[in-house]
Amino acid sequence: MILFRKFRVLILMVFLVACTMHIVIDLLPKLEKRAAGSSSSAGGGGGCSCAHTPGEEPRSWAKQRPRAAAVAEPGWPNKHSLRLLQDFSNEPNSNLTSHSREKVTERAESEKRVRQLQLGSEKRGLMRDPVRGPKQRAVHGSSRLKALYEHPLYKTELPHLSEDDSLFNLNSDVRFYPKAAGQQEWHNEGNMEEEEYSPAGEANAESYPNWLRFHIEINRYELYPRHSHIIGALLKDLVSQNITSVAMKSGGTQLKLIMSFQNYGQALFKPMKQTREQETPPDFFYFSDFERHNAEISAFHLDRILDFRRVPPVAGRLVNMTREIRDVTRDKKLWRTFFVSPANNICFYGECSYYCSTEHALCGKPDQIEGSLAAFLPDMALAKRKTWRNPWRRSYHKRKKAEWEVDPDYCDKVKKTPPYDRGTRLLDIMDMTIFDFLMGNMDRHHYETFEKFGNETFIIHLDNGRGFGKHSHDEMSILVPLTQCCRVKRSTYLRLQLLAKEEFKLSSLMEESLLQDQLAPILIWPHLEAMDRRLRLVLKVLADCVEKEGFLSVVENDLEGQHSSHHHQAHGGR
Q1: Which helix (H) or strand (E) holds 449?
Q2: Rounded to an integer, what distance in angstroms lies between the CA atom of residue 446 and that of residue 8?
Q3: Using CA of residue 196, residue 199, residue 201, residue 204, what is the dihedral sign?
Q4: Is 500 annotated among the ligand-binding residues?
Q5: Digits of tens for pLDDT over the chain (574 positions)?
Q6: 82 labelled binding-site residue
């Protein structure tokens, strides 16, 4: 009995000691922060405001991590262990030592890149106006891009949209809530104090955040209107909105991150894996090639210049891996892969099929990394999408070939197969083929459409990261659908001819359009030149088709009464 009482006393003492340790651990960071604040204010307010000196932070991370792991769940950070990986934003050599320094550094780098790009253009005999920054170039009076969008081919109008033609139908009795539970409010872009919307008050489409307004504009014929001001605002949001959470995207061969913003919008982040000068190694198969962030950005701009408008908005962003990924993620598997390299750079690799290992880690400089952010399409629960297998899908095998690669009459079979035997689907595939060839993208295995619109709608050009890999090689096999079918929309045919003219040269338009991105220049000059060369090859294939089969058999007139009878049966089997 006495032993039992002693045992209970011992258990109680152990419990009290454990509670005391937890209290001390909870108070220690606050005391450190207070001590650091007092010391920094005593020193005149300059320098680092953290508890450790910048030079000691890499060592302190290594020393403190085991101690924190002793009081936390193994492999998962508690609220204090998130502070253990150093935030290099306070390092003297960091390009984010302060908010003002970040702006100055980015502006200086952007201007330097623009000057280098202009210098290269002038050496090639191209006339350029003096440019001091990408924004000034975009609004200049002699803008080729502005002149292009003033051309009659870029002013065709859609028919009146019925309820069946809009993805979402708004009425005064319906409210869109970005979050089903919790605090039901979001902050609009701009002045946070003046533009805060509460669902309890009056609401209209103008009060919605830009990502939601983008979703509302989707219709049967286009992902977004040709001259939509919302797209410009959404691109700015992708660059400026605070990132509140990060998680790895399931599926896929390479690492992608889902980033959520303060206004409850979401975007897909593809980090930088290659420099702009690197080409895909010649011995790489197309299915093992890297996915490039600058290819995603460039694909959006090319799609808009071609007037397809089938790629969701994409913007480049410089992300702080410490503050904007590691510190906000609740993905255990992602957090465990962060480490500090021998060069004192923050790195991580995540989990995926290819290139997710320490040897292929993504490292910042010291914790800054470039990436592309693609705006999310509406949630599948609200707007279902159907995934279609591309008829000209590659075998994705090292030795086997697909049927279309060995059968020259393969297109005749496709024309007899729904949904390619009617409507505009086959012609949309030809648009996608031309789009991929201009980028050099061999990785088009599937495409998607919105289920609501059935088969009479556009196809969405998703996942373009394997484009712009080789500027020195033109992969003619990408054009096989066009050479086999010899079909094209008249609107596409005329725009391609327009972009081959000197005053609307595709490379110049892409150069100007890409200068609007924060990470400009996005493409090096050889990639821009390659697009002009490939455009000439596309026109040569179409010219051969016209000579062989006749203009009326090759070019489908979609401009007279455009979209007015979208539900009619076209001559798909011709």
Answers
A1: strand 446-450
A2: 66
A3: positive
A4: no
A5: 676 677 788 888 888 888 887 777 766 655 555 555 544 444 444 343 333 333 333 333 433 333 434 444 444 444 433 333 333 333 333 333 333 344 444 445 544 544 554 454 444 433 333 333 343 334 344 799 999 999 999 999 888 889 999 999 876 455 555 554 333 344 444 444 444 444 433 456 778 999 999 999 999 999 999 989 999 999 999 999 999 999 999 877 789 999 999 999 999 999 999 899 988 877 677 666 788 999 999 999 999 999 999 999 999 999 999 999 999 999 999 999 999 999 999 999 998 887 888 888 999 999 999 999 999 999 999 999 999 999 999 988 888 999 999 999 999 999 999 999 999 999 999 999 999 999 999 999 999 999 999 999 999 999 999 999 999 999 999 999 999 999 999 999 999 999 999 999 999 999 999 999 999 999 999 999 999 999 999 999 999 999 999 999 999 999 875 544 444 443 444 4
A6: no
* CA 313 to each of CA 373, 406, 466, 546: distance values in angstroms, whole numbers, following the listed order: 8, 37, 17, 35
Is 295:465 a contact under the CB 8 Å cutoff? yes
87 in a known ligand binding site? no
Task: Check the annotation: does 374 bind a ligand.
Answer: yes
- β-pairing verdict for 488-489 and 555-556: parallel
Residue 62: Cβ-neighbour burial (10 angstroms; 0-12, 13-18, 19+)? exposed
Instruction: Report in angstroms the alpha-carbon separations of 51 from 22, 68, 89, 101, 377.
Output: 20, 16, 14, 22, 43
Count CB neighbours of 267 within 10 A. 26
Q: Kindly report the three-state secondary structure assignment for every residue of 144-178.
A: HHHHHHCCHHHCCCCCCCCHHHECCCCCCCCCCCC
- 443 given a catalytic annotation: yes
Q: How, if at all, do strands 339-340 and 314-320 pair?
A: unpaired
Q: Is 291 annotated as a binding residue?
A: yes
- The amino acid that residue 287 corresponds to is F
The SS3 call for residue 341 is coil
Residue 178 has a CB neighbour count (10 Å cut-off) of: 16
How far apart (Å, rounded) are the C-alpha atoms in residues 561 and 574?
A: 21
Distance CA 522, CA 296 (A): 10
Tokens coding 121: 């253009």
Give me the catalytic one of 303, 367, 443, 517.
443
CA neighbours closer than 13 Å in the CB half-sphere of residue 298: 32
Give dist(CA 218, CA 237) in Å, integer.
Answer: 19
Owner of token pair 């010391």: 39
Is 448 annotated to bind a ligand? Reply is: yes
86 is annotated as contributing to ligand binding: no
Q: Which amino acid is at 454?
A: G
